[in-house]
Amino acid sequence: MASSVAQNKSNLVVNGTGTGDGGLLLCNCSVVQLGEPGSQPVVNKGVHILIRNKVIEYMGPTPVIPPQVIDIGGRYVLPGLCDAHVHVTAVTADLHELTQIPPSLVFARATEVLRKMLLRGFTTVRDVGGCDWGLAKAVEEGSIPGPRILFSGAALSQTGGHGDFRLPSEDQLCGCSCSRSSVNLGRVCDGVPEVRKAARDELRKGASQLKIMASGGVASPTDHVKNLQFSAEEISAVVEEAKNVGAYVCAHAYTAASVKRALELGIRSIEHGNFVDNECLDLMRSKGAFLVPTLVTYDCICRHGEAAGMPKAIVNKVADLLECGIEALASAEETGVNICFGTDLLGSMHDHQLEEFKLRSKVLSAASILRSATSTCAKLFCMEDPNNMTMIVKEGEIVSSKTLIPRVLDTGCIIKQFEGS
Fold it and tell me: Is 211 known to be catalytic?
């Protein structure tokens, strides 16, 4: 370390240590400027970054010395990582079993999921089914450590859809998410009036965006991945309710038919999209919509699904999803679609979150992958203002400094040493 201050901090483990109004200065940083898709990234060296009052106040060549200074020594400073598809309350890979676990135990286990996400460098995540206002608020107020959570509440599903986790032998809805008597990633609703009411209720409870199940999925026990779900009228009703309050809708959708219909009805974000075709991708680009591939979950389900508690019949549903997902990702990049970083991991498989980067590297450049986990996610989240950049310091507080590298500030900067660079 070039600085005695940095040396002093390098052996600390700090949780919630505030920097105060005086701020924190990161000296001698190499800042990666990604630019627009297709452009080459630019590295600006010798940059000084001042974080004060939870925002990046200054970034440039002249240091302004506050009470706390860390010499970065020329290492890279990157925007805080974003994951646009998580389920932080999915503390088991068996989503039917999840409905049987008391909410208090689920949320206690979710705190560890969130803490580990933050320590991996993720400073903002979008939860697309399961998380509620209370858990998001606990992170916001500092009661538990974790990334900022943009939550959808319970994902809306038709009867027998991807959010209906009843077994074929069951009739009564278990753990209806409208009562929150247990934790359920989905909320079953049928017909326009019921769907509209469910959408309004999730928005009332603070959802940043809504999520619908527009096709079948892997983790649900009674549907097929290629099923088409919800009627056009039901989807339009959800989109209308979201637009009325300035929000948007994301859709779980695998097939070309489900993706095309969702886009035509006003869906802004397509989750997964493994079987999209060129027509879907052209439509996505023309509408400025977003694709959130989740490759790592298929890889993990194949390798670890049963050990994580997922029934074998559900593990078998993954089949060729990883290979198709990689092909779809390559086509989306070639078409110029907005691509976001997502993982969709469940239970103990959350620990494999960073492996999504490796899988994407088969078809994407390093710059494209980094852009998908930073600036493109910020665009999807409507958080493009640089003031939303937040070492691991989260909102100006050092949450971990056991070593200088890696550490993250939730003015959203991840500081990471690139070996061999």
Answer: yes
